[in-house]
């Protein structure tokens, strides 16, 4: 619990890479077998199932969103502290929120598949799980704001980048 936040962020990102990439690798292998060797994993006309491809892709694809944003979150934590001339507010809750975002990132992949016909119960569960990520993300945003609160803020180029992009990038996630 004495590591810099950027180190924590890249550590959690590495764990996400470790678990997110194998499903994509499996999906690509099955796809190559369909296209080159005449197997029927995904071809509906031959008794395959396209939805399985969607699952394999998005079990990778949603964690990938966090593989991209978590290192940036780690950079934000360093920049806000340094250019406010204060310690990062709520360090341990920041570590907890990063790990929780990484974990929940694996529980929400079907929000990319709401129109594929999984049914209202599955859709509702994945919708609620998706909204649950707003809690650890909110912890981070409030910690960043409390870090800047009362600090001697310097709007250097990195600070402008961090303030603008945490404001701008979150709706995309
Ligand atoms: Cu997603």
What does this 3D model show about the protein?
This is Cytochrome c oxidase polypeptide I. One of its GO terms (molecular function) is cytochrome-c oxidase activity. Pfam families: COX1 (PF00115). One of its GO terms (biological process) is electron transport coupled proton transport. InterPro entries: Cyt_c_oxase-like_su1_dom (IPR023616), Cyt_c_oxase-like_su1_sf (IPR036927), Cyt_C_Oxase_1 (IPR000883), Cyt_c_Oxase_su1_BS (IPR023615). The protein is mainly alpha-helical and about 170 residues long. The chain has a domain at about 5-15 and about 60-170. Helix content is about 70%, strand content about 0%. The protein is built from 6 helices and no strands. It has helices at about 5-35, 50-80, 90-105, 120-130, 135-150, 155-170. α1 (about 5-35) packs antiparallel against α2 (about 50-80) and α1 runs parallel beside α3 (about 90-105). The relative contact order is 0.15. The mean pLDDT is about 95. The structure holds copper (II) ion.
Task: Describe the secondary structure blueprint for this structure.
Blueprint: H1 5-37, H2 50-82, H3 91-104, H4 120-132, H5 134-148, H6 157-169
Helix pairs in contact: 1-2, 1-3, 2-6, 3-5
The gist of it:
The protein is an all-alpha fold. It has 6 helices and no strands. The chain has a domain at 5-15 and 62-169.
